[in-house]
């Protein structure tokens, strides 16, 4: 069995960008925690004398190692450098230098000597990991009776920075080694959602054990609930979410003495109580993102002047509405710790665990949902079923959410939606709104995928609130769903489309909603959906949300690629002016632009209605089903919308039509290309599982290095 070597993910990222993305040879020093095979720092030897077959470190690097050891608790661990393709092992010259380094560093028990090559065509061995277009092979040199022994060692990647980002924690820099009362830890300053500035201390056994979190404004550490039942990548996110919920409950307890005053304030000035409850968010960190808590103002008191007592009373009156963290329904609040129903998934990017079948089944196992075996990485089940109750009531006298949700849509929607599952890829302004609409319409199971974190600027154009700032968008959208229906089953993935098992997630859904701003993700998810026979809905906005489109791809119709490569291209040439949203060259994603939320919702509402219809059986008599399947029958699966007068092609097409102004639409037919790999002739279609995603970060690093 190979000896393990722990290496922080941000170190691998640095090696990938500085060494793996450029031609050999390049190199640098590795430092880490003393007395342990733990790599926590990389110093690039940028000015080394190198050729395509030789790397010789500089005197500068030796001095930099000494300076770093003097300034921190980190200690020298070895040298990493690259080799030409086909040489993933240390050379005889390398081995001679290892022996000399062991002689000069008697405190070093093992000299770590990773080799980076651009060999990616052969399977990885147990001592290797992939670095985008390169691989890194880990070796260790130890003293032996006859000199020294060189053996492969097994890298164990610690997903430290990925866990911080997943939890919405914003570190000021990479964690560095410090010594505290004889113990060496990794430490960094960071911003923790809801708690402001904190110091994070992480032990060598993190993430098996919880970090120590020391708030700047507190005398002691925060008590983290560290759930080892969660997938590794989700543990810190789950602990932070539990902290925020606990803090909200504490505030609710402190506010209890003011509730009578709150009621009185609401009677005298109900508008002030409502506004204060929703605006005066008690999450100070989130409020600061909007210019400080004062930006929300206090509620007006009885005399008409702002006062802290009435402000507090108004906030108390609005707590249930304004702070979802203080959910009084313990069943619903506890559901966010419900990852016990998810088997442990692997945490290293690109590796697949064996749990996606469980995730897909738990998110869509109700009647009509489809489970799927396969692999998926870090995800979590957000919701679980609430307490039992008949259709008319629930424990505590509450009505069954299902009965309530369908009370106003009889004949339009079928109660069968409670047994249907939807996969939503992208939880931004469109995806978060659609999740809420589908939840309010009675859809019973959701899987939500989005790698991003809610930022302050998102609140004005999405379903999120100030208290959500810093949370992952997928988790925040999951909270919205559960706030509407505590019995919903919600799975969340704070990851990119390339980091989840799309085959399993698509297979576990009845309908797929592709609401991401990543064109590559749109095409790839659409390919998986078409291959699996799942209808997919693609809502999209044009520049400034002045118009938009909804594309429907289902068996027998054109796929997303044919629609966007055919009708959209023709329309761009026909219309006057550019309408397509601009793309960021570096990331491939659409550039966020100003636009009215009302215009965003115009397109998202159509997409939601189509999705609701497709979640019904084709022969269902519900009005929503007739609407959606009528579109498929007519073949008009490409809808375009104009929100302003004389917008784009509508200016010409609608000029002679009477009583026209704005908010116009066209429903267009799309033809499949016979040679399309997605929807063309069956013998020419390709399996999307064969797709290999390019590494954008490494491509960018390679571009910057030239």
Low-confidence stretches: 262-379, 381-398, 572-578, 582-592, 692-696
What kind of sheet is the major sheet? 9 strands, mixed
Total count of domains: 3
Mean pLDDT, to the nearest integer, reads: 75
Look at the structure and give the CATH class of the largest domain: Alpha Beta
Biased composition (Low complexity): 263-273, 353-365
Biased composition (Gly residues): 366-382
InterPro entries: ThiF/MoeB/HesA, ThiF_NAD_FAD-bd, Ubiquitin-activating_enz
Biased composition (Basic and acidic residues): 249-262
Describe what you observe in this structure.
Helix 6 (about 260-270) packs across helix 9, helix 7 crosses helix 9 (about 310-315) and helix 14 runs parallel beside helix 15. The chain has a nine-stranded mixed beta sheet, sandwiched between helices. Strands 9-10-8-6-2-3-1-13 form an eight-stranded mixed beta sheet. Strands 14, 15, 16, 17 and 18 form a five-stranded antiparallel beta sheet that branches. The chain is about 30% helix and about 20% strand. A hairpin with a 2-residue loop joins strand 11 (about 140-145) and strand 12 (about 145-150). It has three domains: about 5-160, 3-Layer(aba) Sandwich (Cytidine Deaminase, domain 2); about 180-330, no CATH class; about 335-690, Rossmann fold. The protein is α+β, with helices and mostly antiparallel strands and about 700 residues long. It starts with a strand and ends with a helix. Pfam families: ThiF (PF00899). It comes from Catenulispora acidiphila (strain DSM 44928 / JCM 14897 / NBRC 102108 / NRRL B-24433 / ID139908). One of its GO terms (molecular function) is nucleotidyltransferase activity. InterPro entries: ThiF/MoeB/HesA, ThiF_NAD_FAD-bd, Ubiquitin-activating_enz. This is UBA/THIF-type NAD/FAD binding protein.
């Amino acid at each position: 069995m190979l000896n393990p070597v722990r290496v922080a993910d941000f170190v691998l990222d640095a090696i990938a960008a500085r060494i793996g993305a450029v031609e050999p040879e390049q190199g640098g020093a590795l430092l880490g925690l003393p007395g342990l095979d733990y790599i926590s720092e990389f110093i690039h030897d940028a000015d080394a004398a190198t050729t395509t077959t030789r790397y010789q470190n500089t005197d500068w690097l030796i001095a930099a190692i000494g300076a770093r050891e003097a300034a921190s608790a980190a200690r020298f661990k070895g040298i990493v450098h690259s080799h030409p393709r086909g040489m993933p092992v240390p050379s005889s010259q390398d081995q001679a230098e290892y022996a000399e380094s062991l002689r000069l560093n008697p405190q070093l028990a093992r000299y770590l000597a990773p080799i980076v090559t651009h060999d990616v065509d052969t399977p990885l061995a147990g001592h290797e990991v992939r670095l985008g277009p390169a691989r890194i092979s880990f070796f260790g040199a130890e003293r032996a009776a006859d000199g020294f022994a060189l053996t492969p060692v097994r890298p164990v990647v610690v997903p430290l920075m990925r866990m911080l980002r997943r939890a919405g924690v914003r570190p000021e820099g990479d964690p560095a080694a410090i010594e505290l009362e004889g113990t060496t830890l990794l430490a960094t300053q960071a911003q923790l959602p809801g708690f402001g500035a904190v110091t994070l201390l992480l032990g060598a056994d993190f993430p098996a054990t919880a970090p120590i979190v020391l708030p700047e404004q507190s005398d002691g550490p925060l008590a983290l609930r560290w759930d080892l039942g969660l997938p590794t990548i989700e543990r810190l996110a789950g602990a932070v979410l539990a902290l925020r919920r606990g803090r909200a409950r504490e505030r609710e307890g402190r506010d209890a003495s003011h509730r009578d005053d709150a009621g009185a304030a609401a009677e005298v000035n109900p508008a002030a109580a409502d506004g204060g409850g929703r605006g005066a968010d008690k999450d100070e960190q989130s409020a600061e993102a909007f210019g400080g808590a004062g930006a929300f103002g206090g509620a007006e008191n009885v005399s008409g002047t702002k006062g802290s007592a009435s402000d507090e009373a108004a906030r108390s009156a609005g707590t249930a509405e304004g702070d979802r963290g203080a959910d009084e329904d313990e069943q619903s609040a506890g559901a966010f710790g419900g990852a016990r129903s998810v088997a442990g998934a692997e945490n290293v990017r690109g590796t697949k665990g064996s749990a996606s079948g469980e995730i897909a089944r738990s998110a869509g196992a109700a009647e009509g949902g489809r489970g799927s075996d396969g692999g998926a990485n870090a995800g979590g089940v957000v919701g679980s079923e609430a307490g039992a109750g008949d259709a008319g009531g629930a424990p505590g006298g509450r009505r069954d959410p299902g009965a309530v949700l369908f009370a106003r849509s009889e004949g339009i929607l079928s109660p069968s939606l409670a047994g249907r599952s939807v996969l939503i890829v992208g939880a931004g302004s469109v995806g978060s709104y659609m999740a809420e609409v589908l939840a309010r319409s009675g859809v019973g199971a959701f899987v939500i995928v989005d790698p991003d974190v809610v930022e302050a600027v998102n609140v004005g154009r999405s379903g999120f609130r100030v208290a959500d700032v810093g949370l992952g968008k997928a988790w925040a959208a999951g909270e919205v769903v559960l706030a509407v229906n505590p019995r919903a089953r919600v799975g969340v993935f704070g990851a990119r489309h390339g980091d989840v098992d799309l085959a399993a997630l698509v297979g576990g859904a009845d309908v797929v909603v592709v609401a991401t701003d990543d064109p590559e993700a749109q095409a790839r998810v659409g390919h998986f959906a078409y291959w699996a026979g799942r209808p997919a809905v693609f809502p999209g906005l044009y520049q400034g949300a002045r118009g938009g489109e909804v594309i429907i791809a289902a068996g027998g119709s054109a796929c997303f690629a044919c629609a966007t490569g055919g009708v959209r291209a023709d329309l761009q040439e026909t219309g006057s002016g550019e309408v397509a949203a601009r793309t960021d060259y570096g990331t491939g994603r659409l550039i966020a632009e100003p636009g009215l939320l009302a215009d965003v919702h115009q397109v998202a509402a159509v997409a939601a209605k189509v999705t609701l219809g497709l979640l019904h059986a084709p022969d269902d008599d519900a009005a929503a089903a007739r609407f959606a399947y009528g579109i498929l029958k007519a073949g008009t699966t490409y809808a375009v919308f104009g929100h302003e007068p004389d917008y784009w092609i509508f200016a010409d097409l609608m000029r002679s039509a009477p009583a026209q102004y704005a908010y116009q639409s066209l429903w267009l037919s799309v033809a499949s290309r016979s040679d399309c790999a997605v929807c063309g002739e069956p013998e020419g279609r390709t399996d999307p599982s064969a797709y290999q995603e390019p590494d954008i970060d490494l491509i960018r690093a390679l571009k910057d290095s030239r």
